[in-house]
Amino acid sequence: SLSDRLTATFKNLRGKGRLSESDVNATIRDIRMALLDADVALPVVKEFTHAVRERALGAEVSGALNPAQQVVKIVNDELVAILGGQTRRIQFAKNPPTVIMLAGLQGSGKTTFAGKLAKWLKDQGHTPMLVAADLQRPNAVTQLQVVGERAGVPVFAPERGNVAGYDAAVESGEGTRSYGDPVTVSRQGIDEARARQHDVVIVDTAGRLAIDEALMQQAADIRAAISPDEVLFVIDAMIGQAAVETAQAFAEGVDFTGVVLGKLDGDARGGAALSVAKVTGRPIMFASVGEQTKDIEVFHPDRMASRILDMGDVLTLIEQAEKAFDQRQAQEMTRKFLEEEDFTFDDFLQQMSAIKKMGSLKQMLGMMPGMGQMRAQLDSLDEREFDRVEAMVRSMTPFERTHPKQINGSRRARIARGSGVSVSEVNQLLERFTQAQKMMRSLRRGGGVPGMPGMPG
Ligand code: GDP
Ligand code: MG
Questions:
Q1: Which class for 310: exposed (0-12), middle (13-18), buried (19 or more C-beta within 10 A)?
Q2: Whose CA is nearest to atom 28 of ligand 1?
Q3: Is 53 close to ligand 1, i.e. is its CB under 6 Å away?
C-alpha cells in the first residue's frame, strides 16, 4: 500500500535545505501509483502530479516535516483544494420552495438519494416534498413512493389514472416508453409544494444506463422549465475511469451546481471524486454510503483526500507534528548544540510537552504506517512513566534543572518526595539524563542534528 511505500521513503530521507528533485520524484511516483489504484482518471493523474511536482520542487524544507512528509502534505493540500476545500452547503432560495433537481445515469442512486436528502433535510427542520419526474420506467414512480414513505416525506406523482397506459405498462413490466411528461409533472409538483408550503422540493429524474441524447435533453428541459436552485449530479463512485466522460457529458448536457458521490460504501477508493471535481470544477456536496435512508454524509474534502491516498492516519500525524513543532524551540536547540551548551532539564520539559501536544505517545506511534504489527510492544509501553518523569523534573528547582550534576543526595530525596516517586527512580532519571548529555556531545562531534535528547529509554 501507499502507507508502506511512504514509510520506506520517510526512513530514507533527511530534511535539509530545499526539497531536492530526487526526494520529490520518489514521492510523486508513489502518489501517482496511489491515484491510479484509486481509479483516478489517467489524464487527471498526469495533470495533478505535474502541478504537485512544480509546487514541491524548490519548496523550502519545513522544520517540522521531512521531505517525503512535506511532499505528501503538498499533495494533500492540492487534493483538498480540487475536491472543493471547504464543504459546500445547499443554497436555499430566498423565496421558498428551494428546488433541488437530481440528475445522473440510471442506477447511480438518484432515487435512493432523493429519500436520504429528504430525510436529512427533514431532520434539520425543513419540510421537503419529493417529485417523481422519472416517468421513463413504470416502477420508478412506485420506487420513489416507497422511498418517500420510508423518509416520512410526501411524494408528488402523476396520478396513475391520468397517465395513458401507465397501469398496463406496470402490469406488463414494459419499461422504455415515457408515460407522461416529466416537465409538466415537475412544474405541477413545484406548484403543489408551494401551495402546501413545503420549503424544499426534490425532483427525481430519469437516467439511462449510458449517456443518451434524448434523456440528456429531457433533463435539460426540466431544468429550463423549473430553474432549480441546485442541480445535483449523482455519480456512482464505482464507475472509476468512466467518471470523466460521464461527468463531462452531464456538465455539457444539463449542467449541475454540485455533485453527489454515490455508493462510497463499496470498494471504491473514490478516485471518481477527484476526476469529477477536476474536470467539472463543481463541488462534491454529499456522499451516499449505503442503501438505507440514513446512509448520507456531507462530503468532507479532507477526509476524501486521505481516502484517495489511502494513507491511514499519516496525514493526521503530519498535521500534529506540525502543530507541535515550535520554530523557536528548534532554533534554541540548534543554538545550544552549536554553542556546545549542555541540554538542561528545562529543554527536556519543553520536548516532553511538544510530544504531549501530539497526543499520547501510544496513539502517535499507532498512527505511524507499519506500526500495526507492533501492537504488542505498543501495549506494553507505559505512558505513566512519562508522567512520573515529568513530575520529577517539575519538582526540581530552576537551579537544579540547569545544573543536574549538583543534585546531591538530600536534593534527590526532596525531589522524590515532591514527585511521589522513590529515590532510586530519581537516581535512574539523572543517570539516563547524563547518558543522554554524553550522547549529545558525541553526536555533536560527529556533526549530527539534535533529535530528542533526554528521552527516557
Ligand atoms: P437511480 O436509477 O439513479 O434512481 O438509482 P437507484 O436509487 O434506483 O439505485 C440503484 C441501486 O443502487 C439500488 O439497488 C440502490 O439500492 C443502490 N444504491 C443506491 N445508493 C446506494 C449506496 O449509497 N450504496 C449502495 N451500496 N447501494 C446504493
Ligand atoms: Mg431512479
A1: middle
A2: 291
A3: no
> In angstroms, what is the span from residue 453 Cα to ligand 2's centroid?
63
Q: How far is the CA of 6 from the centre of ligand 1 (A)?
A: 36
> pLDDT tens digits, residue range 183-198?
999 999 999 999 999 9
Tell me the CATH class for 2-86.
mainly alpha
Q: Which three cell numbers stand for residue 222?
A: 426540466
Helix (H) or strand (E) segment spanning residue 262 = strand 258-262
Instruction: Determine whether the shortest distance from the Cβ of 107 to ligand 1 is under 6 A.
Output: yes
Angstrom distance (rounded) from CA 218 to CA 206: 8
Distance 77 CA to ligand 2 centre (A): 35
Q: Ligand 2 is a single-atom ion; what residues have CB below 5 A from it?
A: 110-111
- How many other C-beta atoms can be found within 10 angstroms of the C-beta atom of residue 429? 25
pLDDT tens profile 75-103: 888 888 888 877 789 999 999 999 999 99
Phi, psi of 16 (to 5 degrees): -150, 135
Fold topology of 326-446: 434 Repressor (Amino-terminal Domain) (1.10.260)
Domain map of the chain by residue range?
2-86, 98-298, 326-446
User: In angstroms, how far is CA 341 from the centroid of its own chain?
Assistant: 44
Q: Could you check whether the bond before residue 97 is cis, i.e. omega within 30 degrees of 0?
A: yes
Please work out whether the CB of residue 116 comes within 6 Å of at least one atom of ligand 1: no
Grid cell at residue 450? 539534535
- ipTM comes to 0.99
As given in the structure block, the three cell numbers for residue 259 are 455533485
265 lines ligand 1 (CB under 6 A): yes
pLDDT confidence bin for 439, thresholds 50/70/90: confident
In DSSP terms, 233 is beta-bridged to 103, 259
Rounded to an integer, the average pLDDT of 289-314 is 83
Give the model confidence (pLDDT) of 125-151 as tens digits: 999 999 999 988 878 999 999 999 999
Asked whether the predicted pLDDT for residue 24 surpasses 90, the reply is: no
| Structural contact between residues 260 and 286, judged by C-beta atoms closer than 8 angstroms | yes
How far, in Å, from the CA of 221 to the mean position of ligand 1?
Answer: 24
Q: Which fold has domain 98-298?
A: Rossmann fold (3.40.50)
Atom of ligand 1 nearest to the CA of 288: 23
For residue 370, report the distance from its CA to the centre of ligand 2, in Å: 43
Q: How far apart are CA 139 and CA 171, in angstroms?
A: 10
